[in-house]
Amino acid sequence: MMAANGKDACGLKGDEPSVSVNGSSDGFAHKSRSLAVNxxxxxxxxxGTSGPERFTFSPEPTMEDIRRLQAEFTDxxxxxxxxxxxxxLLAMVGEVGEVSELFQWRGEVAEGLPGxxxxxxxxxxxxxxxxxxxxxxxxxxxxxxxPQAVLRKMALNRLKYPASxxxxxxxxxxxxKD
Length: 178
Hints:
By secondary structure, the protein is mostly helical. It contains six helices and three strands, in the order αβββααααα.
């Protein structure tokens, strides 16, 4: 298991708007205004909006911050000797299995996880964090600049799946005709 605390990192403790600025408990400078709407955080922009907006991640920590924090965590424990690419991949696959267990036997689950308890949501946050931590460390060990790789992959996906051809369809790109 990896060390992570998603609740503290998001800065939301109740259903009141909150503003976090330098000196937050997670060690990162924050400057955002959040509002809980129907149990989900929604960013306020341009002085506030009505209605829920698309979910967004916090701007911090960055992926590089996560890489650095995990590297420090690993170094402090002298675990680099165990963190070779194959081992990290297998550990990540195990964590994906733990995420799968949380969804197993539930049938379809709607966006926002209605009906999930706070404890179930927190467990999911822990397991997804483990997956991401292992993914970032695997990318580091393989010398893959993950943010840049994502940008390149998204550019390829735009070519493989042009919106004009695939809009509203779940077909694989090999099934489309020109």
